[in-house]
Write a structure and sequence with these properties.
With 324 residues, this protein is of the alpha/beta class. The chain contains 12 helices and 9 strands. It has 3 domains: 128 residues, 3-Layer(aba) Sandwich (Rossmann fold); 40 residues, no CATH class; 115 residues, no CATH class. The strands form 3 sheets. It has a 5-stranded parallel sheet with strand order 2-1-3-5-9, sandwiched between helices. Strands 4-8 form a two-stranded antiparallel sheet. The mean pLDDT is 92.
Length: 324
């Protein structure tokens, strides 16, 4: 701290940028923050270079909010650098906490991804099949790009993380809670997830009556009853397997939870937990035949993207093994 003022940092790795906006969603609360803290590094908002961070003494930054997973060598380097320079490193958002939606790329190798983007897409004209390389020599000199890693990783798979704030992006309440705890010096024990110890179902106002389903449909295939549990209407909702703290925002507008809060407390694999919950609902009918159960299961579109949308890199599965 400098004269009693906190030094804060924000960094954006492999993510969509929504977490950067989420920081500003705290609205007038930002005025309280700037009264007691200085932002010393935030590439998306202020002109500060990587070299400026390298010159900082170790632990110069009091708290760093790091959003995004680790997809390439630049993000890896910055994660390690900011860990050295920060007293507290917070994984901010689902991508940093679990790998996030970019983590679904772990179903493919880095080579497959580059070939798809630069060679195989219908709109691409690339007769020489040129794929970006980390180092290219041109007349003007040597050009460098970050190395694309073969898999996406959550932040804690590269460096030690002190706290986690899940969400895609984190709900305003979670950001405000974290900032207030930081400003007051009241952070919970290291390693804590700064979100409630309950599931999204606990926050959902919809009525839950008879958890037996005979069909599964996608969101666009039916208009749900607004009062009734979406899962009981055959729409896959990740609420039972997802940590709450968002106020069930999606469910309040009749959209199912997609699981951005990550696994519930004391659950290691969110996808497996949801599959278990779904299996108990499908098999709840005693007279249901095995073929009927298979029909229901086979109607699930994109199981990996449904049950592991945000958590594949940090799950038991982690990635698909690809032989090059």
């Amino acid at each position: 701290m400098d004269g009693g003022r906190l030094r804060l940092a924000f960094y954006w790795a492999a993510s969509c940028g929504g977490c950067e906006i989420a920081v500003l969603d705290i609205n007038e609360k930002i005025l309280e923050v700037v009264q007691t803290a200085d932002i010393v590094f935030w590439p998306a908002a202020i002109d500060v270079k990587y070299g400026d961070v390298e010159k900082m003494p170790d632990k110069y930054i009091d708290v760093c909010f790091f959003n995004g997973g680790i997809r390439n060598s630049e993000q890896d380097r910055m994660a390690r650098l900011l860990r050295e320079k920060s007293k507290i490193l917070i994984a901010y958002g689902s991508c940093a906490c679990f790998g996030g939606i970019p983590g679904l790329a772990n179903l493919y190798s880095g080579r497959e991804i580059l070939e798809k983007i630069y060679i195989k897409t219908p709109s691409t004209v690339n007769p020489e099949n040129i794929i970006p390389k980390p180092v290219v020599h041109v007349r003007e000199g040597e050009l460098e790009l970050p190395v694309l890693y073969d898999e996406v990783k959550a932040l804690n798979q590269n460096v030690e993380v002190d706290y986690y704030i899940p969400g895609c992006p984190p709900a305003v309440e979670r950001t405000v809670f974290a900032l207030e705890a930081i400003l007051k010096g009241e952070l919970p024990p290291k390693g804590s997830v700064l979100a409630p110890q309950k599931s999204v179902c606990d926050e959902c106002p919809k009525v839950k009556e008879n958890k037996k389903i005979s069909h599964i449909c996608r969101v666009y295939e039916k208009i749900p009853s607004p009062e009734k549990c979406l899962l009981e209407q055959g729409i896959i909702c990740m609420g039972p397997a997802t940590r709450g703290g968002c106020g069930a925002r999606c469910l309040n507008v009749d959209m199912p939870c997609t699981g951005c809060g990550g696994p519930c407390p004391n659950v290691s694999d969110q996808g497996a937990a949801m599959l278990s919950a779904l299996a108990s609902i499908i098999s709840a009918e005693e007279k249901r035949s095995l073929n009927e159960i298979r029909r229901i299961i086979n109607s699930i579109a994109d199981p990996a993207g449904t049950f592991y949308m945000y958590v594949l890199p940090s799950s038991t599965l982690k990635r698909r093994f690809v032989r090059e």
